[in-house]
Amino acid sequence: MSRAFVNEDQAAEQADQPVERRVSEQPNYVTARGLVQLQTHVAELQAQYSEQSALGDQADKQRQADIERDLRYFNQRLQSAQVVVPALSTDKVYIGSWVTFADESGAEQRVQLVGEDQADAASALINWGSPLGRALLGAQPGDEVLWKRPAGDQLIEVIRIEAEA
């Protein structure tokens, strides 16, 4: 059948559906704080959905569809969450560790390795599965590791490791 004969109502309805969020294939390791953030976010989305549903015909259908999509995604993330027991060790970088490292020019940065949904570069919370996270994971103080960046590889040295606070 030709595409010219597609039901226009059906095509318009599909156009209103939001694009599904892509679920990462890496294990969903989270810190205890990251798990609480996921739970809080799901509760907030459920409240927003209830508010929209209570409006009945007055509800913003696009907003409601967006909330439903986000609920599907974050509920799945919550179900697959694997809480990482905080490492008290400062001998090796684990998920949850705070790491201070220096680049080749000696400039230091301090970051914490966290789960994917908790990551926030502006707050120095780095996804453990990112190029920087993978470079640091398992490193020890004094180790030089290769950070494989899109802008070019960079050698960095682990200066200090602090346990999750």
Walkthrough of the structure:
35% of the residues lie in helices and 19% in strands. The chain is of the alpha/beta class. The chain has 2 domains: 26-83; 98-162, Chitinase A, domain 3 (Roll), CATH 3.10.50. It has a 5-stranded mixed beta sheet with strand order 5-4-3-7-6. A two-stranded parallel sheet has the order 1-2. Helix 2 (32-54) runs antiparallel to helix 3 (61-80).
- Counting DSSP E segments of at least 2 residues, the number of strands comes to 7
Which regions have little confidence, pLDDT < 50, spanning 5+ residues? none
> Could you tell me the radius of gyration in angstroms?
21 Å
**CATH third-tier fold name of the largest domain:** Chitinase A, domain 3
Summarize the biggest pleated sheet.
5 strands, mixed
Counted by DSSP, the helix tally is 4
Average pLDDT, to the nearest integer? 89
What is the CATH first-level class name of the largest domain?
Answer: Alpha Beta
What keyword list fits this structure?
2 domains; 165 residues; Chitinase A, domain 3; 4 helices; elongated; alpha/beta; two-stranded parallel ribbon; 19% strand
Layout: helices, strands, pairs:
Layout: H1 8-16, E1 29-30, H2 32-54, H3 61-80, E2 82-83, E3 98-102, E4 108-114, E5 125-127, H4 131-136, E6 144-147, E7 154-162
Parallel strand pairs: 1-2, 4-5
Antiparallel strand pairs: 3-4, 3-7, 6-7
Helix pairs in contact: 2-3
In short:
The chain has helices spanning 8-16, 32-54, 61-80, 131-136, and strands at residues 29-30, 82-83, 98-102, 108-114, 125-127, 144-147, 154-162. With 165 residues, it is of the alpha/beta class.
